[in-house]
Every structure is written in C-alpha cells, then in structure tokens.
Design brief:
This protein is α/β, with parallel strands linked by helices and 302 residues long. The chain contains eleven helices and twelve strands. The mean pLDDT is 83.
Length: 302
C-alpha cells in the first residue's frame, strides 16, 4: 500500500472532510478522492459512507480499519526514517510552531540552528495551535510540535519534553499614568481594557483562571489583536496596556520603547513543551530540546 493513500485516509478521518483534508495535504480534491479509491480497491471494501451534502462518515469496515492503518502509518514512517538515516539520505520531518511563537526572534534562531546541525535531513514547518498540533501528531504526518499546555498530554505514541515556563507580564507606553502608581495591585487594572493576542491562547486562559481562583475573583475586559507587532505598536502609541509573554517583547523592553508594569504579585507562567513521535531520532529531539531551553534561558537572563 502507498503511504500517501493511507495518509489521505487518516487525514480525511481527522478533518471530517475530503476538501479540508486535500487542502491540508496541498493536493486537489480529485487527487485525494483517487487515493481513497485506490486504497478501497486494495482493501476490497468501502471506507466511507457518503451522507447527505458534504458530510462523510466511516463505514463499519472503515471504523475497524482506521486504528490498524493509523498504527501501520506510524510504523511505516519509523521504518522509512531509520532506513534513510542509515543510508545518509534526506528525510523530511514536519515540525509545528504556534503562530505566536513564529513571530518571535527565538523561532528564527532555532530554525537556523536545526537546519545547520542536521544538513542531511529535510524539514517542513507548520503553524498550528497547540490543540491542532496534538491532533496532527496523533493522526497526521506531523513529527514534532512546540505546544503550550498546563501539563503535557498523556499519549502512548508521543513523548513530551518540558522546555520552559514563560513569564507573563503587562506592558504599557513609557508615558502611561499607571507608571506613577507602581507597584500596582491586580485589582487596580479592573477598569482598564487589556490588549491580548487571542482569548483562547493558553497564556490568557491561564491568566483568566488565575483571576477567577482568587479570594476575590474578578474579570478583566480584553481587546483581541491577533498580531504581535500590532499589539506592540498599540502599546507604544498609548493605545492601551497589553498582557504578553515577556519573551515576545524583550527587544522593545531592552530598547526602552515600552515599560513593564510592576505588580505586587507575579502572574502565572505559560509552560511550553516539545511534543514528538517516538520514531523521531533521539539526537534530533535532544538538540531541539537543549537548543530551545538555552534560547529561553539566555533570553530570560538578559
């Protein structure tokens, strides 16, 4: 069986749609349909029951076959990687980063380091949220992913390495009136709208839980801006205060373009993990983990 056909089957199950699966694999819908047709012919059974509209569902045989092909795909990928490494041939590893992380200078430094150290390997990079990355690791072609989780996922097919606990801070312009009142109690920010990246982003969900679990819980009004550079410019131009990961504004803080608001208590940190499949070579994962830890440690010590 062709691995591309199995990959197409797994991707359709994951996304629930032929068209969405085709887009994620960067192929046409006719191509993915043809791959499923070939796979069904090889297995001598239909895998999908076509429902009304575009909705699809697995047949009884499809439900039985899915876990088998899922495991087979994992082991076939492992066998391929071992074979290619022994022959010193190239093998493409898919690595995912959160979009928020991809906007940071640390991301570019990490990519350059990995590509320089492992010249015999090919890499492709994806931008996925932590939730989507986990699904892709379990059912798709993704090999490794940097993810934000309160605690690492427990999955037999995956390993997790803790990279760092990222500091969360609130920043403002250098002329903001709040600077005259520091240090501040969190409650004093209750009447200020705080700019955030996204209300589902782990840094903000952790912060929101932190507020609600206080002795006197309260909520803060947020303004969502899903571009880190725009958030920075809004803060510089006195367009509001922002809740951010300190690492994402390190350059601006060092250049005194914005200021960290000093609070009477520390804000909760955001844990970041490297999650990867068991077939990923140990030297690659060790390099990724040590390099990422070093980057975050150096950034924090500046």
């Amino acid at each position: 069986m062709d691995m591309k056909n199995i990959e197409a089957f797994l991707k359709i199950v994951q996304t629930g749609s032929f068209s969405t699966a085709a887009e994620s694999l960067f192929i046409t819908q006719s191509t993915i349909s043809n791959r499923i047709h070939i796979l069904e012919k090889e297995l001598n059974t239909e895998l999908f029951a076509r429902m009304k509209g575009k909705k699809i569902a697995l047949t009884t045989d499809g439900e039985s076959i899915f876990p088998l092909l899922n495991h087979a795909y994992t082991y076939m990928t492992l066998a391929k990687s071992i074979s290619l490494q022994k022959k010193n041939q190239s093998y493409e590893f898919e690595i995912s980063f959160p979009a928020h992380m991809a906007e940071q200078l640390l991301f570019l430094t990490l990519l350059k380091g990995v590509q320089k150290e492992f010249k015999q390997l090919e890499f492709s990079f994806r931008l996925f949220t932590s939730k989507v990355a986990l699904k892709e690791l379990l059912t798709g072609s993704l090999d490794m992913a940097f993810c934000y989780f309160n605690s690492p996922p427990v999955e037999n097919e995956l390993h997790a390495e803790h990279i760092a606990d990222i500091d969360t801070i609130i920043v403002c312009s250098n002329k903001h009136p709040l600077l005259k009142q520091m240090p501040l109690k969190l409650e004093e920010l209750n009447h200020h709208r705080i700019i955030i990246y996204h209300n589902k982003f782990p840094t903000y969900t952790i912060f929101s839980e932190f507020l609600l679990n206080r002795a006197s819980p309260f909520e803060i009004k947020y303004v969502e801006v899903q571009k880190t550079n725009i958030i920075k410019n809004m803060v510089k131009e006195e367009g509001g205060i922002a809740l951010v990961q300190e690492v994402s504004v390190r350059e601006e803080l060092n250049r005194n373009e914005i200021t960290k608001i000093i609070l009477e208590e520390d804000l909760p940190k955001t844990p970041i993990y490297l999650i990867y499949k068991k077939h990923v070579p140990q030297d690659l994962t060790q390099y990724m983990v040590s390099f990422a830890k070093k980057l975050y440690l150096e950034d924090k010590s500046e």
